[in-house]
Amino acid sequence: MSGVIDFHTHAFADDLAERAMASLSHACKGVTPCHDGRLSSLLKSMDIAGIEKSVVCPIATKPKQFEGIFSWCQQIRSERIIPFPSIHPDDPLCLERIQLIKNEGFKGIKMHPYYQDYVIDDPKLSNIYKIANELGLIVVVHTGHDIAFEFDDRTSPERVAAIYRDFPDLKFIATHFGGWAVWDEVEKYLIGKPIYMEISFSLTYLEKVQARRMLINHPPKYLLFGTDSPWQDQKLTIQLLKEMELPAETEDLILWGNAKRLLSEI
Q1: Coil, strand or helix: which one is 190?
Q2: Parallel, antiparallel, or unpaired for β 4-9 and 51-56?
Q3: Alpha carbon distance 107, 259 (integer Å)
Q4: pLDDT value at position 222?
Q5: How large a percentage of the chain has pLDDT more than 70?
Q6: What 8-state DSSP symbol labels residue 34?
Q7: Vertex 142, ends 138 and 146: CA angle to 5°?
Q8: Where are the beta strands (DSSP E) in the chain?
Q9: pTM for the full predicted model
Q10: Where are the beta strands (DSSP E) in 175-245?
Q11: Between the CA of residue 243 and those of 207, 209, 237, 239, what are the distances in Å?
Q12: Domain covering 4-264 in this structure, CATH number
């Protein structure tokens, strides 16, 4: 399994991990994390699963958290750990922050419309997408519902399609297979289009027939492997993907090929 790249994981600094995991576990009732949220535990999980690299996606829930997250991302990046610093759309310095992220050699940014309270295709996000696109940065965004919040459509597949129409060259990654728990809408609005999607926290919830149909019908070069670890086990997710019995070339693109290409372009 050498070469597998997990495009969506989470970890916390050791002094924050216990508190953060307790709070998130309480909010995400019914979901049992597979490790304690520390970076060392993520690396152990990667070793068990045979994963070479993981993209770590912190979330700045307030604008003032940028600097602490950015500093931590600088500390943890390595050959195996690829952190994407998080910007907050309400930060008056967010455009300068994106330039700093690029200047410091990071590959992308992470945003979360629920924890940051915004709608993904709101015009106020246009400048963020524009500068990220100009700089060639990857933008990883939570899409679909979030298990810790009331359901609404702020990250719907239809809104993802609107972003694609406005920014067709943006390296926008729709997480959770295009939209967690709204996969019928994903099939309607996203499947078949050149829109990047990673499969984290999805294969355990989707019916196998629908999951395989979506994987087969989407352009293979726009599919990425992701787990949302520690909220889903990395080894299990690889197993579930293999149970889809995809063509070998497509499986390789999902597990490592597409991610390697995307990350090398920056």
Answers
A1: coil
A2: parallel
A3: 11
A4: 98
A5: 99
A6: S
A7: 170
A8: 4-9, 51-56, 81-83, 108-111, 138-141, 171-174, 196-198, 223-224
A9: 0.96
A10: 196-198, 223-224
A11: 12, 11, 10, 6
A12: 3.20.20.140
Residue 107: Cβ within 10 Å count:
21
**pLDDT > 90 in the chain, percent:** 91
Q: Is 220 strand, coil or helix?
A: helix
Q: What are 191's two structure tokens?
A: 């499947």
d(CA 63, CA 264): 29
CB burial of 20-41 (b: ≥16 within 10 Å; e: otherwise) equals ebeebbeeeeebebbbebbbeb
C-alpha dihedral sign at 151, 28, 228, 210:
negative
Q: Which has the closest alpha carbon to 157: 121, 109, 123? A: 121
User: Are 164 and 134 within 8 A, CB to CB?
Assistant: no
Average of per-residue pLDDT across 40-45: 98
**Would you list the domain boundaries of the chain?**
4-264
Token pair belonging to 241: 């993907």
Q: Check pLDDT > 60 for residue 204.
A: yes
Nearest Cα residue to 173 out of 6, 53, 24: 6
Chain position carrying tokens 């950015």 = 70
Tokens of 86: 């998080």
Q: Tell me the average pLDDT across 133-151.
A: 96
Angle (nearest 5°) at CA 104 between 16 and 136: 110
Q: In degrees rounded to 5, what are phi and psi of residue 117?
A: 55, 65
Spatial contact of 199 and 212, defined as CB atoms under 8 Å apart = no
Q: Which residue, among 228, 217, 221, 216, has the nearest Cα to 262 in the 3D structure? A: 221
Helix (H) or strand (E) holding 251: helix 248-252
